[in-house]
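Example (one chain per record):
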Amino acid sequence: MPKVTDEYRAARRDEIIEAALRSFAERGIQRTSMADVIEASGLSAGAIYGHFAGKKELFAAVAERVLGTRTAELEALGEGGAIPSPGELMASLLGGMSREPFADVVVQLWGDAAIDPEIRSMVQSVFAKLRGLLESGVLAWAQANPDRIEGDPTEWAKRAAPVVLGFGPGFLLQRALIDDFDGDAYIAMLPQLLPR
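Predicted structure:
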């Protein structure tokens, strides 16, 4: 039997994650079964289970993919020594999320997390990573602008990051529930409302 290369395994894993993303976006996470992902991927069950033990692992991989993309976008904001403001950080984060098909099921996922401890644990893990990512960016801004904050920059960033992150659920909830919500206008206002 020919040896499977790491590149082939990574490509197959990415293919499965893409199928899971599509399935989650179409059906929601709770209503998506592994059979749905198998069908969406066009692969065999063995191929899927050779990479992921189940839906929980698939969700974690999808979340990591989305977080990885957002991290790269935030890092690009800081290229050339630029220090983005908290509003610019959040505008970038939400701009990226608005392009993700997965974003459409996030609100449903939060509802499920309120009653399902396993989903709650996964959601808390994602939020912790997002908060840490934002906290790093907010800290860099606070250190560069000590005259704009009160107290120690590290402590200020710890207090500010959850508040800044709170603009995300507001955006996603309104986008999901309000027909005439203007997401572009919301994102454009963030750098004006938050410290710059």
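Caption: The CA atoms of residues 181 and 189 lie 14 Å apart.
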